[in-house]
Each structure stands twice: as structure tokens, then as C-alpha cells.
Here is the input.
Amino acid sequence: PVSPAAVAMNWGRDRLRAAGASGVARVVVRRASVVEVPLKRSEGVKGLFTRDQSERYDAVIDMMAEIRDEAGNVRVTVESTAKRSRTVSENISLIEREKVWFEMTEAMMSDLNMALENQMRIHMKAWIR
Here is the structure.
């Protein structure tokens, strides 16, 4: 599966293009991770007949975009964080696991895109073409 960090960096490359004579725009991915957390499963006879949720995936993407002037001073910054958490069954296949990761990453990037683009329209309008 594609990593949340790679998708977040692609967002920056897709959204920002040099257009002016001076200054720098940059996107910083401060955090992009998915952590697998093992969950307690049924034991004994009950465990033989129960299909438990065996893992939880906690995902986060935290990123910012900023514009600096030619002296390197930050002129404006926008930032957002998206989080998702999802449990999976103990009998989930590798393909289904990858689908869960993809869906979580896609949902987080949709949230981030909306939040960052709205902030950019408000706070970076002097630099947007």
C-alpha cells in the first residue's frame, strides 16, 4: 500500500507551482503514520467460536504549508491534521488490510485537502493564482 507520507508529499507537489519572482512556498509533512495496535482476543472455548477484532489501525497525517519571503521570513502558514482509527477482524486477508489502509489514507487526505485549500484561499490569497 502507498504510505500516508508519500500521499501527503504528492499533495504538495500537485498543489504548489512557482509563479512569482521571489519567495518560497513549501509543504512540510510533520507526521504521517499508521500504527497497528493489537487488541485483546477471546480465549478458551469462547475464543474457538468467536471472530474477534484483532488489530486497530491508528492513522494520522499532520502537515503545513507556508510562504516565506526572499529574506526567509515566514509570511503565512496554514496547517491541518487528520486522524482515522479502524479495527479489523482476525481473519482479514492481506488484500483487505491494504484496502483498509488505502481507505483510511484517502479519507484523511480528503479532509486535509478541504481544510488546507480553505485556509489557503483565506490566508494565502495574495500568493494564489
